[in-house]
Amino acid sequence: MPGSGSLGYLRFSGFLARVFVLVKALAATDRGRRARRDHYQAGLDIAARLADADPTNTGWQRDLSISRERLEEVASAAGDLPGARDHYQAGLDIRARLADADPTNTGWQRDLSIVRQKISGLNEEAAGT
After folding, report:
1. pTM for this model (two decimals)
2. 129 occurs within a structural domain
């Protein structure tokens, strides 16, 4: 395996982070939800290391925000609305930085809009409306 600072290692780590995100199929049972949360957390840990290793890599920054979104889904399904909001807020902060850095990137603008809509939904759910 390449050294932890090499481009090959970083690419492999990015691939591995995506694999953890794709393990969503376990969701049906409590055990599956716990396993899903654990896999998403592992993916988040990898994505965070990658994003920290190269803060200018917008792909890794977006991967980090997606990992946060996946953990929000698990927290929300478990009824942990404060935890869900925390994950979405962290993802929103990342997506806002990406959108602000490149206002002409319609993908970043769309991502930001989606997260804002989901946070609004969580706030309505928490308020019971």
Report:
1. 0.72
2. no
Would you give per-residue pLDDT tens digits along the chain (129 residues)? 445 557 677 777 777 777 666 655 555 566 777 888 898 999 999 999 999 999 999 999 999 999 999 999 889 888 888 998 899 899 999 999 999 999 999 999 999 998 888 878 776 776 775
- The answer to the question of residue 22 being in a domain is yes
Q: What is the 3-state secondary structure (H, E, C) of 72-112?
A: HHHHHHCCCHHHHHHHHHHHHHHHHHHHHHCCCCHHHHHHH
The CATH number assigned to the domain holding 21 equals: 1.25.40.10
Q: How far is it, in rounded angstroms, from Cα 23 to Cα 25?
A: 6
Cα–Cα distance, 23 to 68 (Å, whole number): 15
**69 in a domain, yes or no?**
yes
